[in-house]
Design a protein that fits this description.
Helix content is about 35%, strand content about 20%. α6 packs parallel to α8.
């Protein structure tokens, strides 16, 4: 007999909770237990009638992702490896303040969140897709990453980037449902302008996102300023080329009235030439986009390397000389394999992990 799995309660919005928990004000009480008091069972919801708690337990579940490992970096970046209910592994990264080499420091506590188990898009420099794509994460599994990292770290998260394992816009419906819970005052309560979705360039979904009322931010993983190089390192460019992608970005900025960020991983002798910098400057200036330059973070099993410090600074200088707002990001978590998917890959393949392991 096929057993239909119960819906996780942290996948539901307030209006759905209200419909389940009549009278409707009980829905607000449930949300308060979930996101303010952070309980992990229906039995703990002591101001609800016993009959309602029984009804909830019969129809809904409390999924809890299991912390498998926590790796703490010398620079205070911490990577969290989680096991899901079906034994799949995903990662989140807690990123410390002051992210830029040059510029004013920040006191934000940022979490980099996964949206899929693995990735189907096959960017040639990324560990997330090395073992392929397995499945989309549910809304509760996305929300639970934030809550679990807050619990483990003892820190309040106030900035979210969907830039972990997977392509967020390929899991569009679950992503938007999770964001609505994360953003809502009755939920986790993080402002939309402190939520960034990163995409490798899924043009139809960028346009769809532009029409959403939420003022969430968009980061585009560009990583090359020309179709030739981008198609070589990012297969998605063969379906949605730079022209189509930049048009979608233009539509997004026209609807949201906010700057897009171009993420650009600098890879030695691949995309770090002066000509690439000049082309990138042209694209960024046309959209008034910000540029984050990220020195390549080593991935075991891949041959790419990062450019020298001098080459990184020269690339940055070309952008700034063209009046592009650009920052060169300090490497975070290189000593703990903090690039997307590395810790999961090491664990699944039984490889030795870095020595800076902690339990919280």
């Amino acid at each position: 007999m096929h057993v239909v799995p119960l819906i996780d309660i942290k996948s539901l919005h307030l209006d759905e909770l209200r419909r389940i928990a009549q009278p409707s004000y009980r829905g607000g009480q449930i949300a308060d237990w979930l996101y303010q008091k952070r309980v992990t069972s229906f039995a703990e919801m002591t101001n609800l009638p016993h009959a309602l708690r029984t009804k909830l337990a019969d129809n809904l579940c409390f999924g809890k992702i299991e912390v498998v490992r926590v790796l703490g970096s010398k620079d205070t970046t911490r990577k969290f490896l989680f096991r899901l209910s079906d034994n799949n592994l995903i990662e989140s990264v807690l990123i410390p303040a002051s992210p830029a080499l040059y510029g004013s420091p920040s006191d934000r506590r940022t979490i980099c969140v996964s949206t899929q188990v693995g990735c189907a898009y096959g960017c040639k420099f990324c560990a997330s897709g090395l073992d392929g794509w397995k499945r989309n994460l549910r809304a509760d599994e996305i929300v639970n990453q934030i809550m679990a990292v807050e619990e483990e770290s003892g820190e309040r998260i106030d900035n979210i980037v969907f830039m972990g394992m997977g392509e967020p816009l390929a899991n569009y419906d679950n992503l938007l449902r999770a964001i609505q819970i994360i953003n809502a005052p009755w939920g986790i309560g993080i402002g939309a302008r402190h939520i960034t979705i990163s995409t490798s360039g899924l043009v139809p979904q960028i346009r769809k996102l532009a029409d959403q009322a939420l003022q969430i931010r968009l980061a585009v993983s560009l990583h090359s300023a020309s179709d030739e190089i981008r198609s070589r390192i990012m297969p998605v460019n063969r379906k949605y080329n730079l022209g189509a992608l930049l048009d979608a970005c233009r539509y997004f900025t026209s609807r949201k009235k906010q700057r897009i960020t171009f993420e650009y991983i600098l890879i030695a002798q691949v995309n770090d030439s002066d000509e690439q910098a000049r082309q990138l400057a042209k694209h960024a200036r046309a959209l008034e986009a910000k540029v984050n330059l990220i020195p390549y973070n080593r991935v075991e099993g891949l041959d790419w390397t990062q450019p020298s410090i001098d080459r990184q600074k020269k690339f940055l200088a070309i952008l700034r000389s063209a009046d592009v707002r650009a920052a060169l990001r300090r490497e975070k978590g290189d000593d703990i394999a903090a690039a997307c998917g590395q810790l999961r890959l090491q664990t699944e393949r039984g490889l030795a992990a870095p020595a800076l392991e902690s339990t919280g």
